[in-house]
Amino acid sequence: MTPAPTPAHGEDKMSHGSHPARFDDAPHGEVEIPEYFENPGHPPHVLRWSDVDPAAARRAERQVAFLFLLSILGTLGFIVAYFWMDQEATGVIPGIGTQKLYHFTLGLTMAVSLLGIGFGVVHWAKTLMDDEEVTEERHVLEADGETRRAFADTVAEGLESSQIMRRPLIKWTLGGALGLFALPLGIQLVGSMGPLPRNDLAVTMWKKGTRLVTDPDGLPVKAADVTLGSVFHIMPEGVMEAEYPLNEKAKASVLVMRLNPSDIKSEKQREWGYEGIVAYSKVCTHVGCPVALYEQQTHHLLCPCHQSTFDVTDDCKVIFGPAKRPLPQLKIAVDDEGYLTALGDFSEPVGPSYWEREL
To answer: Nearest to residue 329, comparing CAs of 287, 274, 263?
Structure first.
């Protein structure tokens, strides 16, 4: 049997007899690549109704402007609801059920603001922007003067094809929609990361004569119940009946511990306590996390969020971590029945720093 002939040197073994790829005739360093497919080119450009009818183009322009105007109204509605709407009001939303109207309104107005911009841009691109397909040949990217000029020309051509310079109604409504849309983001960023500049952190429910009660049971605490080395999570008596109980509780929560009086280093700390019993704010002075971990042997309080550590024997001064100030101490005493009571509010604002704290 005669063996099948082997391909000559340089002949493609996978060409199967049609258009064999040969590389032996190609110049040194170059590869001759056969063309098996023709460039199909672009499909015929189909004109839109707005391309041939000026009235249709003006109608599309008004529709795009209406969508941008709708976005502006949604943003303004968000701002109004955020500042002036009752946060506790509820209502029945069809298909959803009972909801807080404040949260529903914020979500609805934000959706209108977003969708107005999105639908407006899509409608603009579909009806008014130039939609003819073009091919751009790849070339070496060089940051020379000619390239920069070409880029500027491309941007100018893009502006021209978008027709934004020839349609001021779209230009101004789009600018208004995008400009106002940044406001809710800024409002949420500033308004949701802590109290506005007022005395929210400087005033709590602690008053002279207010009993210290356990959290969450609400049981008053006698001085005799606080043994050496123990720790109690405390809140003011009656805090859960306040208008905003969780807010008031978060600000006023304290930790109560009994130390050996000989271990206390600060005279002020000893005077503000009672027979070695001291009460300190639970709100970390770094970013407001609850300081709740007490190490009996070292008398250290630890914040679990960022590991700020406070020395209970030295007026809760910071000995480690990012916090910059000691925890505020609550001045306490004992009433006629032996229960621990406050002698007033904290002498300084609790929690993290804010720009008007010193005022």
So the answer is: 274
